Amino acid sequence: MSKRRQPADASRRKFLKGAGLVGAAAVSSPVAANAAPAVPLEPAKAALPGPLQTAVETMPPAKDPANQTTSGGDFMTDVIKSLGMEYLMINCASSYRGLHEAVVNHGNNKPEIITCVHEDIAVHMAQGYAKIAGKPAAMACHGVVGLQHAAMAMYNAWCDRVPLIVFGGNIMEADKRGPGAEWAHSAVDIGQLVREFTKWDDQPASLQHFAESLVRAYKIATTPPMGPVFIALDAELQENPIRDAESLRIPKFAPVVAPQGDPGAIAEAAKLLFEAQNPLIVCDRMARTPAGMANLVALAETLQCGVIDNAGRMNFPSRHPLNQSFRRVMIGQADVILAIEMNDLWGTLTHFSDRIERRSAPATKPGAKVITLGVRDLYLKANYQDFGRWQDVDLDIAGDGEASLPALTEAVKRLIDDGRKSAYAARGEKLAAAHLAMVERSKTDATIGWDSSPITTARMCAEVYDKIKGEDWALVGTTIRLSWPHRLWDFNKPNQWNGVSGGGGVGYNLPASLGAALANKKTGRFTVAFGGDGDFMFNPGALWTAAHHKIPMLYVVQNNRAYHQEYMYLVAMAARHGRGVDRMDIGTTIKDPNVDYATVARGMGVHGEGPITDPKDLAPALSRAVAAVKNGETAVVDVVTDPR
Ligand SMILES: Cc1ncc(C[n+]2csc(CCOP(=O)(O)OP(=O)(O)O)c2C)c(N)n1
Ligand SMILES: [Mg+2]
After folding, report:
1. pTM
2. How close is the Cα of 565 to the center of ligand 2, in Å?
3. Exposed, middle or buried by CB within 10 Å (0-12, 13-18, 19+), for 419?
4. How far is the CA of 93 from the centre of ligand 1 (A)?
5. Which of 563, 585, 591, 597 to mutate to test the pocket of ligand 1 (most atoms within 8 A of CB)?
């Protein structure tokens, strides 16, 4: 008999019981070796006194639990694997312990479990991953408490139209719930917590129901407009033996072929664009696959028109001569605007200010025609208002942007004759010159304050680019309003960029970048990201996951020691109210004490550099960090920047 199984000293047991210091199961578990195994209650969980102990001590012995040779979780694992999901991001919890154990043992850790220290990290990782991998990851969380932590990240993914499969453990049958926490963690309708920002949810009541619901959920999540879905996992269903193995069937998944715009409407759009003097393309969450960028380049080159890319995805090469993203003035010059998969069309076509009072005016010129192409409005919900303000349009084509572009390009090509071709070429040359001027201006602007300390964000971005431009790099995160990479770097490949948070929920950048890095790890792509210090402080624990799972990533903390955006809002508010701005750092700064992010990083087991205040120290620190990343590590570089 092992020492661990020695019966506890009777008087000590009595004392501990009396003091209420240990749970009932902990007291009663050291049974004699030859006694029938006790009901395997969870130690110390729900440490309720008195009645529970009586119940435990008088419980009849259970049937030998080892007789169970299958579990519902095994079948669930098989269904998850059948959909090709590679990863399961989790923060472990008893409400889905059946699935967890089955994934590890029955599935041989496939899908691979990614251990996360907060549900917000797990969901954001899955969001960042999906945008690079082009397919969803699964995420599992603990009943209503885990799901409440997951919720804001799910909202970001919802606003970002990113497919995620979120599982939440639940115990549906009240008579099966153990005392204490299992009640507090269960719900009658757990999906209700996140229903307003998921595309679909279900609570399967049988294993076959689970299989059909998961395949349906996967299909719904990955059909444009994409989004997160939620499946409640009943604990009994996961943990109990499979009783009806012969009748269980994994449904066949056939991905939906993305819907294309109606041919008549496409022809009409082509005619409007063909005839326009100054056609303009604006786009946002357009490229879903590597084909997206090439499709957009083909249309823009056919028309020789400008493209304003709001950069929700890697839509258009940054150095393409037709890229006019930093020339918003073009919106006011265009006579026909084609808006593809726009998130906030009104916001893009409108001047808005809230500095004196909230005011707006159209940025378009009177009579300009607006064509929309996309699936954005095919699936909306009422409560959350992320659909943005109403925008008048002239031709509204429902169809996936990326999938509809080739037909539109062909329709334009059919209209173009030689005369038009030369007019288009002249238009393209003017745009190319304007693009070059824009790039040159960016380079000049970037030199302002080059040697100053704190370091300018322009210099930070230029120095980072210098170190990574020879790699097969992907930028997978930037701080709010950090436009220098898109102004200075040469983005020319699909997946070199994957957009932003979607819902503007801070805490996205660090874990989502890590999720993207996980997807990039397979391809050997070098992952780089910038993140604010404020964002970092929401989820620093993501770095532990980076170390534990050996995910390489260069993460540059733009450390302005503030929630600077909010600081600026406060300054504007004080100015508007005619009051002083000298106390605006109250509640908006992260100093006194300053956070040492490199030390935090090292504490989590990843490489740390900084804080870097002298710009001359930046290049050597980045070299060391890049070397660490190439060695398979995550490296954090803390750059103390000016507030811009
Ligand atoms: C969950 C959440 N909390 C608060 C905010 C409000 N907010 C918007 S920007 C911002 C500052 C973020 O700080 P940091 O990442 O350092 O970026 P900075 O503004 O300093 O560039 C905050 C707190 C938010 N958008 N989301
Ligand atoms: Mg900041």
Report:
1. 0.91
2. 8
3. exposed
4. 30
5. 563
